[in-house]
Amino acid sequence: MLDVVQPARSPRTPRQRRSEGCSDRGFASGIQRPQPTGVQMRLHSSLAAFTVSAVLLLTGTTAASAAPSSDAASGHQTRAGASAAPRENSTQRPVFFIKGYTPGDTCGAKWNSAAKLFKKWKGELHRVGFYKTDDRGCDVRIDPGGKGTGDTSIRDLGRGLAWQIYRMYSSKGQTVDLVGHSMGGLIARAALAGYNQGDPSWPKKLLVEDVVTLGTPHKAAFAVHCLSDLQCREMYYPNGTFRRWLGKKLPQAQGGTDWTLIGSNADWSVSAGNAAPTDIGAQHLVRYSDRSGLGHSALRTTRRGVYPLRYTNNGGAWGSLPRGAAPLRATMNALYWDSRW
C-alpha cells in the first residue's frame, strides 16, 4: 500500500507558512518488524504487490483493482454493546473529504487531485465546507447556519459533521470513511469524540469505519500567524480547552474505527511527529522523509510518484520504504483494505 507502481486501482483497507490557511511552512513543526505482507503491501505501488496484502497500502497500487478479501473481521462491539456489520474490503463506502483552515479561500477545489484518483471509487464522494465564504464545490456544509468563520470552534464543526454523517448515512445503517487534511483531521476527530463521550448534543449512532488524516496537528500546530482566530488557537495550544475536551486518545465510532495518520518531515506547518504521533492510539502511522519534499499542502494534493517513508502498524516495529506511495494513494488504499495492512 505504501509502495509505488501505477496499476489497477486498489480500493480500501480497514483500515506550506499558510496552506489550508497556513502555507507549506507554517503550523508546528513495534512487535517484530512485519514481513512483506500486510504492512508493506499498502505502502508499495507495484502490481506484484497486489499479491501480497501488505505491499498495497504503501505502494502506488490501488486497492480497487484488487480482489475483495474474505478475511473480514466478524462484528465489532458498539458503544451500546450492539454488533455492527462485518468489515470488508470495499470501494462502496461514501467518503467525506474535509479540508483544513482556509477562511476566505476556495473550497471544493482543494480536493480536485483526490477526485481524480478516486474516480473509480463506487461510493459517493463528498467535499466538506464550513466557512460562509465557501463555494458550492463543497456539497456538505457543517458550520452552524452556513455562517462559519475562523472563530467557529472545531468542536462545533465536529458536531455538525457528525450530524451530517448521521442524517445521510448512519441513520440508514451505512458506514462511511473520512479523510481530513490539516485542521480537517481534527474536525473528523471531534466528530467521533463527541459521539464516543456520549455527548447528548451528538447523534446516538455514528458509523465511521476508517479515518485517514494528512498533516493534521494531533499534538500541536505552528499557527502563530493566525492566533487571532479561535480555530488557530485550538490547534496551537496543546493544553487548551478544546484539546482537553478532545481527549488524549483517538475516539471510536460505533462498530470500531481504524485510524491512519500520515505526516511528513518536509512539512513546516505540522511536524511528522505531531501529525503521526505514536501515543494516541492510531493503528497505522506513515511518516514521509524530509527528502520527499512533501510539504503541508502536498500531502493533500500528491497522488503520483514515489517517496521515501517510514511506517508502523498496530504498535509494531518501524519499517521503511525508499519508494513509498504518494500520500493520496496511500490514503485510498487505507480506506479500501479491511485487514491487510
Automatic annotation (TrEMBL):
InterPro entries: AB_hydrolase_fold, PGAP1-ab_dom-like
Start and end residues of each GPI inositol-deacylase PGAP1-like alpha/beta domain: 165-224
Location of region: Disordered: 1-39, 66-89
Gene Ontology terms for molecular function: hydrolase activity, acting on ester bonds
Entries under Pfam families matching the protein: PGAP1
Coiled-coil features, chain-numbered ranges: none
The protein's name: GPI inositol-deacylase PGAP1-like alpha/beta domain-containing protein
